[in-house]
Fold:
Amino acid sequence: YALTLHPRTLELLDELGPGPEIVQQGVRIDSVLFYEDATPRTELRLTELPGKFPFALVLPQSALERTLESHLRDLGVSVRWNERLVGLRSERGLPVAEVGRLAPQPVGGSPGQTEWRVESTYELRPHFLVAADGIHSPVRELLKIDYEAVGEPESYGVFEFECDTYREPQARVVFDRETASVLWPLPRDRCRWSFQLQEPADLPGARAKDRQPVHVGARSFWPLNEQLLSRLIERRAPWFQCSRGDMLWSTAVHFEQRLAARFGRGHVWLTGDAAHQTGPVGVQSMNVALREGRELVDRMVDILNDTASLDALESYNDERIGQGKDNVRVFLKEHPDMAADIDQRLREVLLPKPSPAKDKPIDSEATDSQVEPETVEIP
Structure:
C-alpha cells in the first residue's frame, strides 16, 4: 500500500543513485491541506522546506521496487525473489540462515489452485542479518522480541480509482472527532482515498454475497463496494468533486500501532514493519524503514572495518525506539485547534538530514508465504 516518499527519503535515494528516475515517474505533492470535518483549517506548504526536494512524491510501491531492483542490477547485485527464511541459528556468535526457495505447488483437487511452498533450501552465513520481513516477522519471533501495542488498532477502507478531474499537486487530510482520512493524487489520472472505518457502521462483512475475493500471490483481499465509497465521500469530504471512472482496486486494511521492544541484538537486526507499524495517514512506515536501512548498514560497515564496535548497534536500538514512539504521535487527532504544533512535527519528519556518503545496497525482502519458520533461538 505504500505510495508516498518524504523529502528526506528523496534526498537519500538521490545520494544512492536512482533519485532522478524515481522523481520522474511520480507525482509531486507541493502541499498538504488539513480539514476539520468539511472545513479547511491549515496547509503545510512543502515548497517552503529547504533542501533539494521541497516536495513529497507519490509513487506506487511496485514502481519504486522495480526501479530499485534495476539500479541494483546495474551495480551487479541480483535480487532473489520467491525465497523465504525457514530457519535461523547462531554459530560462534554469527547468524546462519536457512533459506527456502519457493515454488507454486498444486493444492487439493481443484485445477489451477496452487500455493507457494518450499521446494529446496540453502544456507547463508553473513556477518549480519537484516530482517525487513514485515509485521509477522519470523526473525523477530525467533529472537523472542515482544511486538508491543503503542496505540489503538485502526481499520481503513482503501479505494483507488480513475479520476481525471483531480490533478492538484496536493494531498488532503480530513480529521473529525473519531477518524482520519487522506486523499492522494496518483500518476495516470488516478487517485486514492483511505478512510478510517468505524466498525460496525462502515466496515462491511468480509464475505458479503455480492463480492468475490481478489487473489494476489498467497493473499486474498475482499474488495469494498462503490456505494460505501460514495457514502464516505458524502459524509467526510463533500467538497471532493470527481467524475469517477473505473474502480481499480479497493479493500479493508487493518493497522495495529506496534513497536518492537528491541530492534535486534548482536548480529541480527530488524527494520521496517518488522520493528514498527503505524497508521497510513502519516505515510511513515516505508519512509522510516528506508532511512533505518541506510543508517543500519552504515554502522555495520564501520564495525566490519574495525572503526566501531557492536555498541554502535546498541545506540541504534535506543535511538530507533525513541523515534518509533515519536512517529506514533506525529498525527494528532485529539484537537479542537487542529494540534497547534502539527506544522513543527511534520517538518521534523519531512526535512532532509545529512547522511554519510556510503552507498551500500540492501537486499530485498523475501516474498510472503505460508511457510512456518523453524523455531531456533538466537542469543
About this structure: The first strand starts at residue 4 and ends at 5. Residues 206-211, 330-341, 352-379 have pLDDT under 50 and may be disordered. Helices lie at 7-16, 19-25, 61-74, 138-142, 226-236, 285-304, 311-328, 342-350. The first helix runs from residue 7 to 16.
